[in-house]
Design brief:
InterPro entries: Transp_IS110-like_N, Transpos_IS110, Transposase_20. GO terms for molecular function: DNA binding; transposase activity. There is one protein chain. By secondary structure, the chain is of the alpha/beta class. It folds into three domains: about 1-120, 2-Layer Sandwich (Nucleotidyltransferase, domain 5), CATH 3.30.420.40; about 130-265; about 270-405, no CATH class. It has helices at about 35-45, 65-75, 85-95, 100-115, 130-160, 165-170, 175-185, 185-190, 195-205, 210-220, 230-265, 270-275, 280-290, 300-310, 330-350, 350-360, 365-385, 395-405; strands spanning about 1-10, 10-20, 25-30, 55-60, 80, 315-320, 320-325. Strands 3-2-1-4-5 form a five-stranded mixed beta sheet. The chain has a two-stranded antiparallel ribbon with strand order 6-7.
Length: about 400
């Protein structure tokens, strides 16, 4: 066995090779790219005999993606992605000085994979299709987060000098609001907007009850309000026009990326099973698949999948003290998707609603009950994926119905 610690940076990798006794065999700083990976293969080859297999090489690195990691996997090495927090805790357990350097971190990671690789999670063997879904699903969600940030910035600017716009437009990221704010980004120009201009913007945004909404918007924009000096108003209007342009572009790209998400996800063999789950459509289903991956051997049990999801609780017991708390270290994208699924499932799934009501009857708060429902839905999804079957309402909740009847 050969153990390799890889401390990576943007343009280089510090590596250390150890044998089973922990003796250092080689150290090097390798450049990122083909030349660097070739040099690593050469270093490893010098330490192995000609009959050795590639899976006798165990490599630890603080990331699970990128061309470097893919090259390691393609070579047949056993690659473990280690959380940087785990490395920091391990380093603290072996040294109290607080000293830190890239070569020292490579040594620490090599020690970790040598001593604890049986407790570490190997890089998942997801398919290229799942990786592609992850790329587009994460890009789509990131664009939505960016839109929310820019919408809040726009709202803040309007509140400071043009509060009537907030009363006029309920959705600042809507196409109608952005079009009108781009034309009239200050109170004076907004007050001069005609009913025809407002109506045309509402129609292009495909709004309902256009006539009534146009009158309400026009009245709100012409209402009296507190203002700012002219030069300050001019500065704010330039800010509003810029934010409106950014939000318009983001809306276009979000729509375009959504089409990519649906196209990639629709071709995946597990798509039918995932969208059959209550509360999961094409977009949420793609996010769930992207974050869980599609390696069939990654989760040994439903509990393992729940633990990875961050929906299962943590128990802290010591002596007479026994506390059960939520997991606060989790994949933010996955927990967000699962929470949204749970909310939607309460509407479309009688079993999910009944389970939520049971948790509330036990004295749990709303958010805790939703988290418990999400945890239960993860278990159902795991069973469906494991058996290759689509969701069935009666099968999923039959045991709970029997318990209530008893």
């Amino acid at each position: 066995m050969l153990f390799v610690g890889d401390d990576w940076a943007e343009d280089h990798h510090d590596v250390e090779l150890q044998d089973v006794q922990g003796r250092g065999l080689a150290k090097a700083r390798l450049e990122e790219g083909i030349a660097g990976i070739a040099r690593l293969h050469e270093l490893i080859g010098r330490q192995l005999d000609e009959n050795a297999e590639a899976d006798q090489v165990v490599i630890g690195i603080e990331t699970d993606r990128g061309p470097w990691v893919q090259a390691l996997i393609a070579a047949g090495y056993r690659v473990y992605a280690i959380n940087p927090l785990q490395v920091a805790r391990f380093r603290e357990s072996t040294s109290v000085s607080g000293a830190k350097s890239d070569p020292a971190d490579a040594h620490t990671i090599a020690d970790m994979v040598r001593l604890q690789h049986h407790q570490l999670r190997p890089v998942a063997g997801d398919t290229a299709e799942a990786e592609a879904i992850k790329v587009v699903a994460r890009a789509h969600k990131t664009l939505i987060w960016e839109r929310n940030r820019h919408m809040l910035r726009l709202r803040h600017a309007l509140r400071e000098f043009f509060p009537s716009a907030l009363a006029a437009f309920g959705d600042l990221a809507g196409a109608d609001a952005l079009e009108l704010l781009a034309k009239a980004p200050d109170p004076d120009s907004a007050a001069r907007l005609t009913t025809a201009q407002i109506t045309a913007a509402l129609k292009r945004a495909r709004r309902h009850h256009v006539a009534d909404k146009a009158q309400k918007i026009r009245a709100a924009l012409r209402a009296e309000q507190l203002g700012q000096p002219a030069i300050v108003t001019s500065a704010y209007s330039a800010t509003v026009r810029a934010q409106a342009a950014i939000l318009t572009t983001l809306n276009e790209q979000i729509k375009s990326m959504q089409e990519q998400v649906e196209a990639h996800f629709g071709r995946h063999p597990d798509a039918e099973i995932i969208v059959s789950q209550p509360g999961l459509g094409m977009i949420l289903g793609a996010r769930v698949l992207a974050e869980f991956g599609d390696d069939p051997d990654r989760y040994a049990s439903a509990k393992a999948r729940k633990n990875y999801a961050g929906t299962s609780p943590i128990t802290r017991a010591s002596g007479r003290k026994h506390v059960v708390t939520a997991r606060y270290v989790h994949n933010d994208r996955l927990i967000d998707a699962l929470g949204r699924q749970a909310y939607a499932a309460m509407i479309c799934s009688p079993g999910s609603r009944a389970y939520y009501d049971q948790q509330r009857a036990r004295g749990l708060g709303h958010h805790a009950a939703v988290r418990q429902l999400a945890n239960r839905l993860v278990g159902i999804l795991h069973g469906c994926l494991r058996t290759g079957t689509t969701y069935d309402e009666a099968t999923a909740w039959s045991h709970r119905t029997e318990q209530v009847a008893a």
